[in-house]
Design goal:
By secondary structure, the protein is mainly α. It has three helices and no strands.
Length: about 60
């Protein structure tokens, strides 16, 4: 469970840090994937697309 402490009544700062933690943990992505059923072939296809996209990002950073 993700917890965030509100300091000095700054709810906006706490909300921002909560959102960052949720994204970093991958919780939002997991919830979106579980919203509906997808076939195993579709899962593989999407995983392959994501791998290719991320490898292009990694290659462009290393140049």
């Amino acid at each position: 469970m993700t917890k965030v402490v509100v300091k000095n009544g700054k709810v906006d700062d706490a909300l921002r840090s909560f959102k960052q933690k949720v994204v970093k943990n991958g919780l939002l992505k997991e919830v979106r994937e579980k919203e509906h059923y997808s076939k195993p072939g579709v899962k593989r296809r999407n995983a392959k697309k994501e791998y290719i996209k991320n490898s292009h990002k990694r290659d462009s950073r290393n140049r």
